[in-house]
């Protein structure tokens, strides 16, 4: 049994290395399953107990991320994310210009808002923007994670790592104060010949006490802001080139087979009114072409980017089904082919988009769209029409339907089930990602989002000043706002459950458990002590080793665990070498936050891994130069700002 316990650190290290190698070279194994198997292995071999193994599934980080995914779904459902994306990304036409517009707002926001909240809210915005323009989200999602990491070190509340460091410093202050009190008591009762030695120890402890005080709100900004500037410039100029440009080719080909004709009417409340076609973003949607504008019988064709949109205009497009879905999400823009189309938010939320192909036995064949009476026959409304190999007239309502025509319909959710075997149709299928927006709840969900951001900022401040409790918990804040999203009908309970990305949640929870195995087994402490023994007492070399050691462990363990493990070691090393511990403390706070090399190094890296289609190699290719730049910046500036 003793022999097995002695092998626990090596088992933890070998398992972690095995996970990385398997992810890299065996693509068919799901990442979440791999981490679960690794967690089970270290538990079955006794490296950690079952309680520690499953602790990650109840961790505050996992709960907060889960709740934030629900909040993000509520913002998406009500159209708030569409609005945010249009404001931030603006007229960006490619990945490079999009990254340029994202960098400033993301870095600035990450300095004051929880990183996971930013990534959870911005991921769907970026994915939708990329899909509309046939661009690769893998060019933007990892930069999104990196930018939030860079912004997080600009203030004390930007990332959980600095808060953990501050909490450990507060514990250190309490411990040193206790030692000073005990020394003062000993000096008072000690023999005269023993007092000088005790006073020397007391002076040393008082010096340590002055150097391990908790950080100020902007103290880390002196190094965090330069790191953020250097890192942002790298991502803008070089970093994006190392990222893959993956697209789902099969989905693209499938979309291109169905090019619909659709006529949209501009209602008085539409936000596109009095904007040019280009400013409205109608020139940049992939797979969509604006054929003409019908303005009270006056036909504007061809349409130029400088033409204005007016209330009551009828806009005629040809486009892919996915782009038509995007058009439907714009408030005040509704299909005009069928007058029975439901456009009130409360009514639309009960309806979905469905595709049908007309068969020879359909009673609709030979009638026009306007006279077909879809509402009476099928409780549905026509949105758009597609006909292979033939150019359709621009007035959809006057199209005479033929066998084989594909219709895009607005139907009830049970339409597919009811009509799957209906002889009127060759094919009946629902359209993915076509949920209608609850624009009537946009202000409410936006207000809840602002409330959450304010709460998270206050939460960080409360923790900074040592105040604990429910109000000071990001997990409770996110869970409360997520519950309010459901309660106020910004999204339904079913939609909230669907928003939970089980793969992301399980991967993060299992990765936390694997990090606990490295910590509990003593593997991390064993490696740290061995590295420190090799260096000696030269302060600058110790700083380099501690920073690099912190970065190395952060890539394999959770960042907060690394900070908790290495901070006492750093203070002890500084005390033994007679150096100021402050540079080492700052090095750990920065190094434990700068995780760019692996998906498990930081929670946001894991969150973008699946949606971006990344492999560990992608993190290394883009992250190694960034990590080197951050190391050079930090190691150069820290001793100049906080002297040894």
UniProtKB/TrEMBL annotation:
Give Gene Ontology CC terms.
Answer: plasma membrane
RCK C-terminal domain residues are 248-333, 338-425
SUPFAM superfamilies given for it? TrkA C-terminal domain-like (SSF116726)
Intracellular or extracellular location(s): Membrane
Q: Where are the transmembrane segments?
A: 7-27, 33-50, 57-75, 106-129, 141-165, 220-238, 442-465, 500-519, 539-572, 584-602, 622-642
Q: Name one GO molecular function term.
A: monoatomic cation transmembrane transporter activity
Question: Which processes are annotated in GO (biological process)?
Answer: potassium ion transport
**What's the main place this protein lives?**
membrane
User: In what way does this protein cross or attach to the membrane?
Assistant: Multi-pass membrane protein
Name the domain of life.
Answer: Bacteria
Q: Which UniProt keywords apply?
A: Membrane, Repeat, Transmembrane, Transmembrane helix, Transport
User: What is this protein's name?
Assistant: SLC13 family permease
């Amino acid at each position: 049994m003793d022999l097995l316990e002695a092998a626990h650190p090596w088992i933890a290290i070998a398992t972690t290395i095995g996970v990385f190698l398997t992810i890299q070279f065996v693509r068919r194994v799901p990442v979440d399953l791999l981490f679960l198997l690794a967690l089970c292995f270290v538990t079955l071999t006794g490296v950690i107990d079952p309680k520690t193994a499953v602790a990650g599934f109840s961790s505050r980080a996992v709960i907060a991320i889960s709740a934030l995914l629900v909040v993000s779904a509520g913002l998406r459902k009500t159209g708030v994310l569409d609005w945010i994306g249009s404001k931030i990304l603006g007229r960006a036409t490619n990945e490079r210009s999009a990254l340029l517009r994202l960098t400033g707002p993301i870095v600035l926001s990450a300095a004051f808002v929880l990183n996971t909240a930013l990534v959870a809210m911005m991921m769907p915005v970026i994915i939708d923007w990329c899909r509309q323009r046939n661009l690769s989200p893998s060019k933007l999602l990892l930069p999104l994670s990196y930018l939030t990491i860079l912004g997080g070190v600009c203030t004390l509340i930007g990332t959980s790592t600095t808060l953990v460091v501050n909490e450990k410093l507060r514990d250190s202050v309490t411990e040193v104060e206790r030692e000073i009190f005990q020394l003062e008591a000993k000096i008072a009762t000690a023999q005269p010949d023993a007092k000088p030695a005790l006073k020397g120890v007391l002076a040393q402890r008082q010096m340590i006490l002055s150097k391990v005080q908790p950080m100020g709100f902007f103290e880390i900004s002196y190094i965090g802001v330069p790191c953020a500037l250097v890192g942002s410039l790298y991502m803008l100029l070089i970093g994006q080139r190392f990222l893959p440009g993956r697209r789902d080719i099969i989905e693209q080909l499938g979309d291109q087979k169905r090019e619909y004709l659709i006529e949209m009417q501009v209602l008085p409340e539409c936000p596109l009114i009095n904007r040019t076609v280009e400013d409205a973003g109608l020139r940049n949607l992939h797979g969509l072409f604006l054929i003409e504008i019908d303005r009270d019988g006056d036909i504007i064709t061809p349409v130029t980017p400088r033409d204005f949109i007016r209330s009551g205009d009828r806009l005629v497009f040809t486009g892919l089904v996915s782009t038509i879905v995007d058009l439907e999400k714009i408030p005040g823009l509704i299909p005009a082919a069928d007058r029975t189309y439901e456009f009130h938010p409360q009514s639309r939320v009960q309806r979905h988009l469905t595709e049908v192909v007309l068969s020879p036995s359909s009673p609709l064949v030979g009638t026009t769209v306007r006279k077909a009476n879809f509402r009476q026959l099928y409780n549905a409304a026509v949105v758009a029409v597609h006909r292979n190999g033939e150019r359709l007239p621009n007035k959809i309502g006057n199209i005479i339907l033929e066998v084989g025509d594909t219709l895009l319909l607005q139907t009830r959710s049970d339409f597919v089930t009811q009509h799957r075997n209906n002889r009127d149709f060759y094919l009946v299928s629902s359209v993915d990602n076509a949920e209608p927006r609850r624009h009537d709840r946009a202000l409410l969900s936006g207000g809840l989002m602002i409330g959450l951001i304010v709460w998270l900022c206050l939460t960080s401040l409360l923790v900074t000043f040592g105040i604990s409790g429910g109000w000071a918990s990001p997990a409770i804040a996110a869970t409360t706002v997520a519950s309010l999203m459901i309660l106020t009908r910004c999204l339904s309970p079913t939609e909230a459950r669907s928003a939970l990305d089980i793969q992301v949640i399980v991967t993060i929870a299992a990765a936390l458990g694997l990090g606990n195995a490295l910590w509990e087994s003593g593997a991390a402490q064993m490696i740290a002590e061995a590295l420190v023994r090799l260096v000696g007492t030269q302060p600058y070399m110790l700083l380099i080793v501690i920073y690099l050691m912190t970065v190395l462990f952060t890539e394999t363990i959770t960042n907060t665990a690394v900070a908790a493990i290495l901070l006492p070691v750093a203070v002890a090393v500084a005390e033994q070498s007679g150096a100021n511990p402050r540079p080492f403390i700052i090095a750990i706070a920065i190094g434990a936050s700068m995780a760019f090399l692996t998906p498990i190094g930081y929670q946001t890296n894991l969150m973008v891994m699946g949606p971006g289609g990344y492999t560990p190699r992608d993190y290394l290719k883009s992250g190694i130069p960034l990590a080197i730049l951050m190391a050079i910046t930090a190691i150069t500036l820290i001793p100049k700002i906080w002297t040894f």
